[in-house]
Amino acid sequence: MTKRLLPLFIAALIAAPAAATEPPADPYAEARALIAEVQAIRTPDGIEERRTVELGGMEQWITIRGTDRANPVLLYVHGGPGSTMMPISWTFQRGWEDYFTVVQWDQRGSGRTARTNGLEAADGTFSLDRVSDDAVELIGWLRDHLDVDQVIVAGHSWGSLVGLEATRRAPDQVSVYVGIGPVVSIPANEEAGYALLLDEARARGDAEAISQLESLAPYPGALTFERLGVQRDWVRSYGGLAAYTDNAGHYFRAPRLSPDYEPEDVAAINPATLRIFDAYMDGFAGIDLTGITALDVPVVLFLGRHDINTPTGPVLDWLEALDAPGKDVVWFEHSAHLMPVEEPGRTLVELVGTVRPLAVAD
């Protein structure tokens, strides 16, 4: 397994060229400009910002978009590590902005933040602890900047770990925690996902998949990029990343049309993601937040029925034992791991109908 395309929750590498000496041509410039025009915020009380914020001593990129500053603030914490959602958000987010002020954030070492600071700038600082501290700092900055008391934290995949830990550290600043394709224990996640894959391969009589997966046993064992890559390759092939497709190509190519990214930013995603993942690898397999048994914040989980990337069993076990003022599970029957992209309408309906009332409750 080569480092070519490793899907979300480890690294969603975008099908884009490597960074070049000369800035690449932008064949999508006209389309990007049109998308920006269509999605422009024009309401009197709206907000549309693209800027950096200093978090943990590093300038990190965010976007802030919404049609009414009186709406609840929703911070989207992307997965990966390194799988920025900012350049993909144009595919699903515009409807959210009528009901929320939505913040996308490129974490340290990721996406535009990596390109701006240099790929090496975050070396030695990659850890769940450090990124969670960044998230808490960002929540505090948003409260001041937008004049709000609390923020909804929506963590996707790897970002669900960051979001959960940030919520634990600053519960008074978070109104609702939303886990999208969530994970709470990487060892449990990897064990469950492997078992599901092997069962599916045997049910299909897929000799190649069976052989490759059985060669990893015991899994996860000593987790390496290469071993993880073999498992994630079959996750994608079996529709466990994006349901009903074996490649999720629409997701990986979407950044090319992003109004928030220049071609240089898109070209930096792959090398940045590889660098950040290599840095995380040593401690990655030991991350386990099941010790969080109580939160003073309502919890809502968005779960994809076909998700093999982050199987639902371990997180449902955790939720059942969790003491929280509110707990809810929303199933996405036609999604695997990418619910906002796979079922954008249902995602919006559940954010508005399930999450928003918790954030604005008296």
Overall description:
Helix 10 (312-321) links the parallel strand 7 (299-304) and strand 8 (327-332). Residues 1-7 and 11-21 have low confidence and may be disordered. The chain has a single domain (29-187, 239-360), classed as Alpha/Beta hydrolase fold, catalytic domain (Rossmann fold). It has an 8-stranded mixed β-sheet with strand order 1-2-4-3-5-6-7-8, with helices on both faces. It has 362 residues and is an alpha/beta fold. It is built from 12 helices and 8 strands.
Blueprint of the fold:
Blueprint: H1 29-38, E1 47-55, E2 58-66, E3 73-77, E4 101-105, H2 111-117, H3 128-146, E5 151-156, H4 158-169, E6 174-180, H5 186-204, H6 207-214, H7 225-237, H8 249-253, H9 263-284, E7 299-304, H10 312-321, E8 327-332, H11 339-342, H12 344-360
Parallel strand pairs: 3-4, 3-5, 5-6, 6-7, 7-8
Antiparallel strand pairs: 1-2, 2-4
Helix pairs in contact: 2-9, 3-4, 5-6
Q: Name the CATH superfamily assignment.
A: Alpha/Beta hydrolase fold, catalytic domain
Question: How much helicity do the residues have?
Answer: 40-55%
Hey, roughly how much beta strand do the residues contain? Answer: 5-15%
Largest sheet: number of strands, sense, barrel closure: 8 strands, mixed
Classify the fold: give the CATH topology.
Rossmann fold
What is the β-strand count? 8
Helix/strand structural class: alpha/beta
CATH C-level: Alpha Beta
Global outline: globular
* Gyration radius from CA atoms, angstroms: 19 Å
- How far apart are the first and last residues' alpha carbons, in Å? 52 Å
Mean pLDDT: 92
Domains (count): 1
